[in-house]
Every structure is written in structure tokens, then in C-alpha cells.
Amino acid sequence: MEKTLKKYFPLFLLPTLLAFLIAFLIPFGMGIYLSFTQFTTVTDAQWVGLDNYRRAFTANQDFRNALWFTVKFTIVSVVTVNLFAFLLALFLTQGVRATNLFRTVFFMPNLIGGIVLGYLWQLIINGVLRYWGVDITFSANYGFWGLVVLMNWQMTGYMMIIYIAGLQNIPHALTEAAAIDGASYFQILRHIILPMVMPATTICTFLTLTNSFKLFDQNLALTAGAPGKESAMLALDIYNTFYGRIGYEGVGQAKAVIFFLILALIAFVQLSLTRSKEVSQ
Predict the structure, then answer these.
(1) 20-77, pLDDT tens digit by residue?
(2) d(CA 235, CA 258)
(3) In this predicted structure, which of 2-16, 174-188, 242-256 has the lowest mean pLDDT?
(4) Average pLDDT score over residue span 235-254
(5) Does domain 63-280 have CATH number 1.10.3720.10?
(6) In this structure, what are the phi and psi dihedrals at residue 136, rounded to the nearest 5 degrees?
(7) What angle do CA 160, 165, 166 make, to 5 degrees?
(8) Phi, then psi, of 138 in degrees rounded to 5
């Protein structure tokens, strides 16, 4: 059986490999090449070297503002989503009645599309802010916290399910023995539950970090970057640069490459840090 699998393995791998090559590797390589060119279509690209990367940072402050806005949003979202998700998971693993119903209800927002979520929360937030005679586009701070609330509402239930799976893998005998030995609940939480749930924390932190950093649909629907592009995140700024300014396609592509490199670096550092905690614990 093993010999047969080895014999036909390349045959079964070939379709997936071709799809990965055509749908990802080739477009990815072309995207990197186009970031060094000035173009309107892929057939009229003219090499300009690092000029697009220079213009990405010096043409205006939009890209730098979007980068700082995205970093702040990501930090707040990663902390709040994981905190609320973990607390909910703790609560729903304590034998609460109708646990399955609560899990379903909390998870459901994750099934709604980003555009729909953005417009839904725009209506809700504007309905509250109208009592002060403003709307969500009045200030970038309103857009920032609106996006944070939206992200928490959408992602907390999803992360909660992962944390619940991690908590349910902790041997009950271990916590029971600690309680018999006189450990308080907070001591059990700190020295047993948190260390043993670190694999789930690694996954949840990675998912919330990457999803927060590359947020696009919700940002477009909720504020569209208003006022004056002050609430535009990186993905939206790249979209506006590529499709909104004639002759800036190469600059938009350069921003996309920078965006990819930043996200890859942050994700790598995060995975290294959280995985080291798993090993040490």
C-alpha cells in the first residue's frame, strides 16, 4: 500500500501544484516585478526601479497615515478580541445552561460578509451619534472605534470556539488535584489553564492579527476612509492608489508589496514568540 501511494503521489499532487503555481506563484512574482515598473496594463510596463517605493512614502502622507492607523487598530483589536473571546470561553465551559445556544449566537456574526457588517454598523453607530449632531465620518476617532467594535463583534465568537476547544483539552483531573491541594481559582488559571491553552492562543492571535491588519471590506463600507482618508487602513489606501489615481498603478503595486512584507514579518515574529511560550511552558 505504501509503495502504491509513493508511486502515484506525484500524479495526485500535480493538479494542486499547477493550481498553486497558476493562481498564486506566477501572479505573486508578476506583482513584485510590476512594483518596479510604471504601467497601465501588464503589456506596457516600463522599468522605473525603486521610484515607485520612494513615491509610496513621499508623494503624500496617505500611506504613512494608513500604516499608523492600521497598526493602532491591529493592536487594540488583537488584545480586545482575544480577551473577550477567552473570557467567553471560560464562562461557557463552566456548565452554563444553554451553552450550545450561546456558542451558536456568538459565532453567527462571523458568517456575515464584511460589506454587510460595515453598512449594518454604520447604521447603528450613526443612529447613536445623530443625537450629538454628527456621524461616523465626523472624526477619524469615531471611525477607529467603530471599526474596533465591528471587529470584536465579528471575530470574538470565532476565537471563542478555538479557545473552548483548547480549554476542553485540559485534563479535569489536573485542575481538580490543584484545587484539592488548596490552589485558588486564579492560581489554577495562571499556572495551569493559561499555559495549557497557549496553542489555542497562538492560533487566535495569528488569526486576529492577520485579519485585523488586512481589513478592507469593513473599512470600505463603514467609513470609506472619511474624513479626508484619515480612517483609511492599508488595504483601502492601496485600493484607492491603484484604482483611484491615473499613473499610480505602479505605486499601488509597490504599496501592496510593502504591505505583504510588513504583514509577513509581524506574523512571523508573533508565531515565534507564542510558540516559544508553548515550548517553555
Answers:
(1) 889 889 999 999 999 999 998 878 899 999 999 999 988 789 999 999 999 999 999 9
(2) 11
(3) 2-16
(4) 92
(5) yes
(6) -70, -20
(7) 95
(8) -65, -35
Q: What percent of the chain has pLDDT over 70?
A: 97
Give the residue extent of every domain in the chain: 63-280
147 and 222 in contact (C-beta within 8 Å)? yes
Task: Report pLDDT digits (tens) over 159-195.
Answer: 999 999 999 888 888 888 888 888 888 888 888 888 8
pLDDT tens figures, 100-133: 888 888 999 988 888 999 999 999 999 999 999 9
CA dihedral 74, 191, 200, 175 (to 10 degrees): -140
Grid cell of 15 as nine digits: 493538479
DSSP states of the chain = -HHHHHHHHHHHHHHHHHHHIIIIIHHHHHHHHHTTEE-SSTTS-EE-TTHHHHHHHHS-SHHHHHHHHHHHHHHHHHHHHHHHHHHHHHHTTS--TTHHHHHHHHHGGGGS-HHHHHHHHHHHHHHHHGGGT--TTS-HHHHHHHHHHHHHHHHHHHHHHHHHHHHHTS-HHHHHHHHHTT--HHHHIIIIIHHHTHHHHHHHHHHHHHHHHT--HHHHHHTTT-STTTT--HHHHHHHHHHHSTT-HHHHHHHHHHHHHHHHHHHHHHHHHHHHHHHH-
Give the Cα separation of 65 and 196 in Å (integer): 39
Q: Of 246, 239, 165, which Cα lies nearest the Cα of 202?
A: 165
